[in-house]
Amino acid sequence: MEKQVYLIRHGIAIDRALSEEDATRPLTEKGRKKNEKVAKKLKDIGINFDIILTSPLLRATQTADILEKEGLTKTLETFSPLAPNGNIEDWLNWWEENAPETVALVGHEPNLGNWSELLIWGEIKGKLVVKKAGIIGLNCPQDLSPFGNSELFLLTSPKWLLSQ
Prior knowledge:
This protein is of the alpha/beta class. Strand 2, helix 2 (58-69) and strand 3 (76-78) form a beta-alpha-beta unit. The chain has five helices and six strands.
């Protein structure tokens, strides 16, 4: 039995130079609108999450809120290991304890790409990049460690997803 993990990068945020603190950088209007379109498209194609875990940084929580408001989940939680430089082991411990069928992780680059590579290949290769508002989908085995044993089934930019 496999479970699905969707790694979703936050939308376009205001420039770092315009914010005193990285953690409080909000989505731009363009970023918010693009996330709303992506969320609607995900809903239209029948994607639903048992839970969304989000980085505590504002741009990620705003992205997760948009996904929740579109009806993609009934459960949304802030999860500090999704902040930049978070530890995948912390998520893995949570995942093994909670075992949802489908989970969305809303976070940042390079973490999301690196975590995906660890789950697929068991090592970071620096080859997978998640665009802003982009998504990676993985099938992760339930009966053994997902590290190096997961299968990529989706890697999409918002531009491609919205053109379908």
